[in-house]
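To whoever is on call:

I kicked off a structure prediction for a single chain this morning and the downstream step that reads the tokens threw a length-mismatch warning. I double-checked the sequence; it's 440 residues and nothing unusual in it as far as I can see. Pasting both halves so you can look.
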Amino acid sequence: SSGHIDRYNIQSGIYRGEYKHGDKPAHKNPVRGVASDALNQVVVSGDAKGILKFWRFKNLALINKVVLDSELSMFRLHRDSNLLACALETFDIHVLDIDTRQIARRFTSGHHAAITDLTFSHDGRWLLSASLDSTTRVWDLPTGHCIDYFTFSSPVTSLDFSPAGDLLATTHVEDLGIYLWCNKSLFQHLHFSSVAKNAKPRTLTLPMDLTLSTEEDTSKGDVEVKAEEVDDFVSPDQLNEDLITLANLPTSRWLNLLNLDVIKAKNKPKAAPKKPKAAPFFLPTVPGLEQQFLIEPEKKDTEDRFITDFSDLTEFGKALGQAESEEDYKAMYKSFLEKGPSAVDIEVRALAPEGGGSLSLMEQFLKLLDNELKRKRNFETVNAHLGLFLQIHGDTIVSSAELRKCLASLQQSLENSWTSLQSDLDTSLCVTSFCKSSFL
């Protein structure tokens, strides 16, 4: 509250200096936040009057200061993008770029009470704000719009994203628990549209009360869902034939295909569950003078536990062997995308001769991937499936001239796709760098 900002070494606890103006402290008013960038080059501090000051981390010198439109309540820094989200006493939010010292976004009229916490998503695209009016908003920074608006039964006191962006943790007033909420955008493709200014927030019930109180609430919920379904924008499968299109599948379906063996080994139980021996009601005895129970030795049925006949192909393998035209390959890959990671691994292994397939079937699979690359569709899944195929059948490909020839054609299609994509990315990066440097 005195406005002083001191620096200490965390490990040793040794005092390392003070940020100040000559003999005066860093701020005249109570300090509301301090943060440093990812490279420990710049320190940002803000006081209650809405004055942000930028300091050199090493020599403690003042670089610049920015005066906000209102008094500052708190701020949060996203260290990867150097974006600083500032919550004001007027319940507005300003997003500042600490590199250019310019305000990038202003979010007004979002809340009607004091903002309790702010947090960025892991990629810096979304900003979440929580308020004492029990509402939480999700702001999309590239577009500057609110894309989600919901309320809880009690106000949120703190919230934060997981490093992977798949979970949101919240705490609430008069509640000692920590609640985890799943990010639906990682498991299904969602279309994000701007929330209307007069829209009412969706009510999210805490896990202790998952039922609706009245039939009227249920009917209202059904109406809202139907309205959303009608208003949803349906995007075409491919905007342009010259553009590379992604499959929009959840990352859990294709990202860990190359590490599937490691994941299965980690999840494998240490010991198989043992079935308890079922004792009969009357134990049989051995005929004789002495009473002895007849205990039969356990039969080890090992013949039926392993499959020894690999001559039959899978349904996917049979259909792939009969595919000839581009439409056949298109339909085959569409059905192949519906399989889970384990099923994809089994199908790829079954293509080799030792798995019941043949070299011609492996060649058909490479043609299937080549066809998708030429169509510029499902770019990320094709690369994942190609990586899995090369990892499993690398030795077989080396010994087969036909597979190497087919793989060379596939490599050419892949290089053309990457060249086109790299050219578009370089152009976008150049334009972004020029616009960013022009403001300095």
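Update from on-call: the warning came from a stale cache, not from the record. Cleared it. Sanity check on the structure: The chain is about 30% helix and 25% strand.
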